[in-house]
Amino acid sequence: SMSIHRKALKLVKDGADKPVSLDDDKKSLQACGVAAGSKLQFKDLGPQIGYRTVFVVEYAGPIAFMALYAARPSFIYGASSAPLGAVQSMYVMMFIAHFVKRELETFFVHKFSRPTMPLSNLFKNSMYYWAFAAFMGYFLCHPQYSAPTHGLSTVAAIAWGLFELGNLAVHIQLGGMRKVEGETTRNTPKGPLFSLVSCPNYTFEVLGWVAFSLGSNVLMSWVFTAVGLAQMTEWAIKKHRGYIKADPANKKKKAILPFLI
């Protein structure tokens, strides 16, 4: 039989411009206005996969790639590869720590409003993270890698750590606002972390990668940061509009970059 997560139902109401989605799993059909003689539209959403599974897989790839490159295998860098330098070692550990943090948040912090997403998202999301990790790791661990000459690698690493903690704090607050898995209602987040922007988790994420890119001197890391900023800005603006709709006072804030966007 077909999984319930593949099924999408809409109620066709006479005189209505569009059918109404029946997406509240906690309500019966009768409670949603379905009665004898009602017209329903059915759509097969296609193969689905759990949200948590997608997160685990997409974050595992970067950890594996970076660990592989850090081992300096001869089939990649040649037989005479020297050990990693001090800056290389520090930023390899930072990179791996970032994605280990994401894995731990997936299991212990995040609560998902929907149980599944299309299976195709697994390949799309994994390709994004895995491809960037493959390029970033290759150049960061390369025997000919040149550490930055600006002398800011340690300062950037400290800043990175603070931004990671800020990101974690926001995630913990957001996770606490959703009492159980599958809950779709969530109030507008408030508090010091949300005083300037609606999505400070994205703000800290971007700042963390800026610090990583500055301290590591890897060009592909800057590209990853720029692409991530573009994607997270799109998500943040969408969420910001929702928060404004729920509470017009949120117009005073920006979506992701304080005073700018």
SSE ordering? EEEEHHHEHHHH
The stretches of 5 or more residues where confidence is low (pLDDT under 50) are none
Assembly type of the chains comes to single chain
How far apart are the first and last residues' alpha carbons, in Å? 47 Å
Helix coverage percent of residues? 40-55%
> How many β-strand runs?
5
Q: What kind of sheet is the major sheet?
A: 3 strands, antiparallel
The spatial strand order of the largest sheet comes to: 2-1-3
Helical element count? 7
Strand proportion, as a percent range, falls in 5-15%
Write down the overall geometry: globular
User: What gyration radius follows from the Cα positions, in whole Å?
Assistant: 22 Å
Which secondary-structure class do the elements indicate?
mainly alpha
Mean pLDDT: 93
What does this protein look like?
The mean pLDDT is 93. The relative contact order is 0.11. It contains 7 helices and 5 strands; from the N terminus they run ββββαααβαααα. The strands form 2 sheets. It has a 3-stranded antiparallel β-sheet, with no helix packed on it. The protein has a two-stranded antiparallel sheet with strand order 4-5. Helix 1 packs parallel to helix 4, helix 4 crosses helix 7 (219-246) and helix 5 runs antiparallel to helix 6 (200-216). It is globular, with a radius of gyration of 22 Å. 53% of the residues lie in helices and 8% in strands. By secondary structure, it is mostly helical. The longest helix is centred in the last third of the chain and has 28 residues, at 219-246.
